[in-house]
Amino acid sequence: MARGRRPRAGGFTYIGLLVLIALIGILLAAAGEVAATAAQRDREAQLQWVGHQYRAAIGRYVGLRRAYPQRLEDLLGTESDAPVPIHHLRRLYPDPMTNAVDWVLLRAPGGGITGVASSSKRRPLKTAHFDDEDKDFEIASDYGDWKFTFAPGVVRPRTP
Predict the structure, then answer these.
(1) What's this model's pTM, rounded to 2 decimal places?
(2) Are 61 and 53 in contact (CB under 8 A)?
(3) How far is CA 99 from CA 47, 93, 94, 95, 96, in A?
(4) Residue boundaries of the structural domains of the chain
(5) Which residues of the chain have pLDDT under 50?
C-alpha cells in the first residue's frame, strides 16, 4: 500500500446503516399494526357499551310509555308533556366505529324504534365470548350485524 493512502471502508458502513434503517421500519410497521388492532378492540368494547345503553333506554321508554320511541331524540326526555322530564338516555351517543350519530335504526313492526345497529361495514375482530343477550354477534360478518334490540317480555340478565 502506498504511503498516505487509507483503505476504503465507507461502503460497509453505508450498507450497515441501510440495513439498520430497514429493520427500524419493519419494527415500526409491526408496532403500528398492533396499535391499530388495539384501537379497534377498544372501539368494539365501546360499541357494545353504547349499544347496551340504547337497548336499555328503549326498554325504559317502552316500560313507561307502552310504545316504542319514534326518534332517538325521544330517549333524551326533552318532551314537554311530562311534568318532570325523564331522561332514558343522557345524550345521543355516536357510533364508535364511525364516530358519528349515524346509527341504522331498527324498526318495530307497528312503528317506532326497537333498536340500533352500527352503520360500519368493517369486519369485527371479536367473534366469540359474548354475553347471552349478544350471542347472535358470533355469526356477524360486519359491525352492522351487531343489532342492539329491545324485545319486551325478554328478561335480559346483565353480567358485570
Answers:
(1) 0.77
(2) no
(3) 10, 9, 6, 5, 5
(4) 14-149
(5) 155-160
